[in-house]
Design goal:
The chain has a two-stranded antiparallel ribbon with strand order 1-2. It has a domain at 55-109. α3 (71-77) packs across α5. The model has no long low-confidence stretch (mean pLDDT 80). The protein contains 5 helices and 2 strands, in the order ααββααα. 42% of the residues lie in helices and 5% in strands. By secondary structure, it is mainly α. The termini are far apart. The longest helix has 14 residues, at 100-113.
Length: 117
Amino acid sequence: MTDKNETNLMAAPCIQTDEEDVAKKTMTTWHKRDWQQFYELARRPWQRHRPPRPVYPTGLNRVLPAQGFSLSELDDAGVDLDLAERLGLPVDAGRIGAYGPNVTVLRDFVRSSRQPL
């Protein structure tokens, strides 16, 4: 005997969500031109570089990785917070001061990541 509150999972129909239906309808096989475009894109060299990692000096001739670039480093490099977010740069608002090599690396990265007009 089954209780009224119990549900028989074997008898319940399997329900598909709308997302699954949409994915099935839009999925088609690739034509020759699609493969050509895919391999053309895959053979291209990387257009975007990974964002640089910030460091901070700790004593004589030694640096350690930091959580993110300080706000003063971003300001010295001419990068605002919106641009830093678009470029994927880590930002640490708690860090104080600007470390020269971080500013130089930031400037070079922003110059290299600019899109040609």
